[in-house]
């Protein structure tokens, strides 16, 4: 259905993709695998016409094109769902689904026809979304569903999915997988980009691995092991992904007592996190764990309960005061909340530490000093390329994440709250994040880790709190920290049963 031949792309002298061949067959899922910066995003942007290739051609259903454009790709039946959302925030879900392809009745919009079609589409996908809800009010998972529905509305012959489950719960992801199975049976060719080995293993027929902008190879999924794919991706045997962390729990760093938020997203939650340990927060998307992290940092208003830092109650948490008290928070959506994408890496790293004397000459910010200070944390996190003056938007997702995390290394914070720190990044970048958590804990910091990745919770946390429907329903430690035990609490248990455990 689709053939890319000798595709290359250069940006201002830098080679993002070099002489890559790629093909997609009818009724197959062809996975693209590679570290952040390997060239995956560049390749799929060439296929949908975001920009033209420097060399090579693209053939769709037998017709060759020197380059594509978004409109031509759409006419030829190519649709894409990108990791970074493109929904206009001020439109409703219904308006977003039909933007640029509105139904008309004469000179007027056929709103009834659009609503009927949208309702049927969402029902088929089993996505529960209010069509009249404004996009800016949707959760990240709901925005992901709208993007997927918008792409499928055009009945594509070629569908490109870039990290489509990064923001979905397991149940929502299963609905997407059912839709993918239907599309395969209908003969649709699907290009699937993911860092989740389980998805690649269960969904794909073939895998193409990219590294450093070059194609390493294409293999049948059933004929290669996960270890073999990782070795192709990183160029070396991966070894142990999760480091062994030497926990030394000390004084209580964070204590939350009966916390409830004004919006009701958290209800009567309590937890204790000590210096020298990793405390995990588990639960399905929307269970309240992300909202609890935001409340601790002061981004969400507290209705009842208290937050204590090192035994001192914080009457009204606020981001500025929490940073001053030694607590650093990393949000799950680096693009929307974590980074100023148009600004250089240097500014993103220092933006919460501009009061440091090491960054100033007298009362003024000293850019030369700032450049020296940011270099060490960026080297520690292995930012590639090590270019602090480049805008963050020019980096891959994994390196954008590293730029955000480097902010926490400018100062010696005592508490670090990570919310989904590895969402949308590759295995190599994940390993770097895990090593960072290990170093922080072993130097005596307290780490609170909220993640939907069960292996991260099991392998990194010394204790795990599980949340369900806005409340903490279980605390697991020692031999209780198994995937089965965590999952058993995802849908809640009666209080008496929890006490027996």
Task: Explain what you see.
By secondary structure, this protein is α/β, with parallel strands linked by helices. It contains 18 helices and 24 strands. It has a 6-stranded mixed sheet, with helices on both faces. It is globular, with a radius of gyration of 24 Å.
C-alpha-based Rg, rounded? 24 Å
Write out the CATH superfamily name of the largest domain: P-loop containing nucleotide triphosphate hydrolases
Helix content: 25-40%
Give the spatial strand order of the biggest sheet. 6-9-10-3-11-12
Strands, total number: 24
- Name of the top-level CATH class of the largest domain: Alpha Beta
- Biggest sheet descriptor: 6 strands, mixed
CATH architecture of the largest domain: 3-Layer(aba) Sandwich
The 3D shape can be described as globular
End-to-end separation: 55 Å
How much of the sequence lies in strands comes to: 25-35%
Uncertain regions spanning at least 5 consecutive residues = 494-501
What would the CATH topology of the largest domain be? Rossmann fold
Tally of discrete structural domains: 2
């Amino acid at each position: 259905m689709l053939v890319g031949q000798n595709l290359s792309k250069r940006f201002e002298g830098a080679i993002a993709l070099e002489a890559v061949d790629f093909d997609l067959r009818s009724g197959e899922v062809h996975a693209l695998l590679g570290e952040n910066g390997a060239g995956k995003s560049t390749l799929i942007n060439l296929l949908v016409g975001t920009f033209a290739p420097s060399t090579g051609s693209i053939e769709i259903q037998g017709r060759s094109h020197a380059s594509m454009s978004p409109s031509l790709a759409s006419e030829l039946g190519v649709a894409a769902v990108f990791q970074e959302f493109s929904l206009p925030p001020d439109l409703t879900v219904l308006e977003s689904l039909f933007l640029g392809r509105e139904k008309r009745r004469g000179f007027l919009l056929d709103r009834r026809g659009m609503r009927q079609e949208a309702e049927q589409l969402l029902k088929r996908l089993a996505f529960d979304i209010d069509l009249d809800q404004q996009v800016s009010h949707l959760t990240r998972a709901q925005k992901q569903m709208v993007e997927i529905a918008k792409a499928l509305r055009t009945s594509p012959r070629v569908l490109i999915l870039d990290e489509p489950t990064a923001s979905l719960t397991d149940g929502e992801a299963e609905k997407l997988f059912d839709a993918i199975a239907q599309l395969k049976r209908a003969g649709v060719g699907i290009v699937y980009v993911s860092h989740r080995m389980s998805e690649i293993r269960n969904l794909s027929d073939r895998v193409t691995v990219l590294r450093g902008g070059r194609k390493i190879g294409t293999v049948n999924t059933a004929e290669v092991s996960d270890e073999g794919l990782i070795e192709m991706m990183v160029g070396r045997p991966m070894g142990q992904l999760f480091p062994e962390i030497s926990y030394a729990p000390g004084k209580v760093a964070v204590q939350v007592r009966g916390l409830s938020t004004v919006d009701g997203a958290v209800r009567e939650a309590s937890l204790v996190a000590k210096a020298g340990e990793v405390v995990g927060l588990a639960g399905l998307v929307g269970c309240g764990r992300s909202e609890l992290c935001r409340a601790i940092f002061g981004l969400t208003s507290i209705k009842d309960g208290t937050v204590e830092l090192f035994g001192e109650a914080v009457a009204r948490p606020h981001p500025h005061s929490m940073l001053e008290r030694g607590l650093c928070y990393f949000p799950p959506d680096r693009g929307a909340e974590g980074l100023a994408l148009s600004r250089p890496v240097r500014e993103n790293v220092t933006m919460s530490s501009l009061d440091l004397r090491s960054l100033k000459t007298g009362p003024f910010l000293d850019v030369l000093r700032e450049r020296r200070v940011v270099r060490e944390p960026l080297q520690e996190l292995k930012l590639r390329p090590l270019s602090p003056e480049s805008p963050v938007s020019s980096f891959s997702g994994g390196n954008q994440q590293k730029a955000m995390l480097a902010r926490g290394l400018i100062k010696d914070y005592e508490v670090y709250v990570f919310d989904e720190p590895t969402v949308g990044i590759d295995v190599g970048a994940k390993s770097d994040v895990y090593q960072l958590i290990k170093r922080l804990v072993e130097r005596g910091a307290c780490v609170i880790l909220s993640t939907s990745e069960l292996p991260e919770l099991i392998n990194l946390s010394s204790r795990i709190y599980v949340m369900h429907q806005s409340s903490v329903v279980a605390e697991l430690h020692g031999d209780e920290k198994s995937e089965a035990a965590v999952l058993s609490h995802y849908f809640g248990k009666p209080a008496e049963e929890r006490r027996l455990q």
